Amino acid sequence: MTPEQLRTVLAEAAADTARTAHPVDGAVLRRADGRTPGHWHSNLALRTAARLDGADAHDVAEQFAEALRRHPDIAAVTVSGPGFLGIEVTAASLLAAVCAIIAEQIDDADPGADAVPAADAHTSADDGDPAPEVPDGPARALDDDPVHLIRRSHAHGRRLLRNAAAAGVPGGCPRTAAKGDVRVGEARPDSAEIVGAETLDTAERSLLVHVTEAADTLARTRDPAALTATLADLAHAYLDWAASHTLVPTLDADITAVHAARAVLVDAVTTVLARGLRLLGVRAPERM
């Protein structure tokens, strides 16, 4: 489920519960910061209650929550404070959403396209490394330049995908196209067809939410500062994930559904980073 889809679901809940068919001024949907339950936070119930004479915001939020819980792509809804909604979406719907993001890229440009002259490209022996080295944390001094951080994160993700493909890790999206040295997924956004969704842990699901939020921002703005901040935030989140998770299993371990799901996650991260870099007029490198 993308942010835009969730906004639609929230609007439908407001229309059904509070009988308000018009957009509610000041309603905000924000990605959760991890300190409170859910993937997304919304003040829609508070804003709706303000338009209804004598309505209690907490009661309105509980009604919204009840309506939202009936949606098949919503796993849980909590009400906190005076009427804030905390919304957790299912892992399958998150993977379906990022598969759709990957599929959209096929008709655009190769997410790993690197037009840097050969003399500028690094040709290190990363392709044969089953466990690519992750930098010592995302806040290294060399990443004070956010565009460098974004480009390095993209190259790191593409390297992981090359190694995963060489190790036989399948992608979790239906695969129907090949571009460059990494297969790019063309997905039908059908949650039932997504492999390994329920194997993803809390951090991985949060990163999926982060990907959908970044893609939503890229679709809504062309402001360079906003784009750079969004992409750098995603790059930091990706490197934090990569420091504690593996895409390619060790030699004595089996390839499982979680590796397939992680391949989709990394594919989606690099897709969004590449798309954002193109909007900034910067090349997205395969290697750095």
From TrEMBL:
Bilayer-spanning residue ranges: none
A single cellular component GO annotation: cytoplasm
Keyword Ligase among record annotations: yes
Region annotation Disordered: where it falls in the sequence: 110-144
The keyword Ion transport belongs to this UniProt entry's keyword annotation: no
The entry's keywords: ATP-binding, Ligase, Nucleotide-binding
Molecular functions (GO terms): arginine-tRNA ligase activity; ATP binding
Root EC class: ligase
Composition skew (Low complexity), residue ranges: 112-122
Residues of the DALR anticodon binding domain: 150-288
Enzyme Commission (EC) number: 6.1.1.19
Pfam families named in the record: Arg_tRNA_synt_N, DALR_1
GO biological process: arginyl-tRNA aminoacylation
Gene3D superfamilies according to UniProt: Arginyl tRNA synthetase N-terminal domain (3.30.1360.70), Isoleucyl-tRNA Synthetase, Domain 1 (1.10.730.10)
Record-annotated Arginyl tRNA synthetase N-terminal domain positions: 4-89
InterPro entries (UniProt xref): Arg-tRNA-synth_N, Arg-tRNA-synth_N_sf, DALR_anticod-bd, tRNAsynth_Ia_anticodon-bd
Protein name (record): Arginyl-tRNA ligase
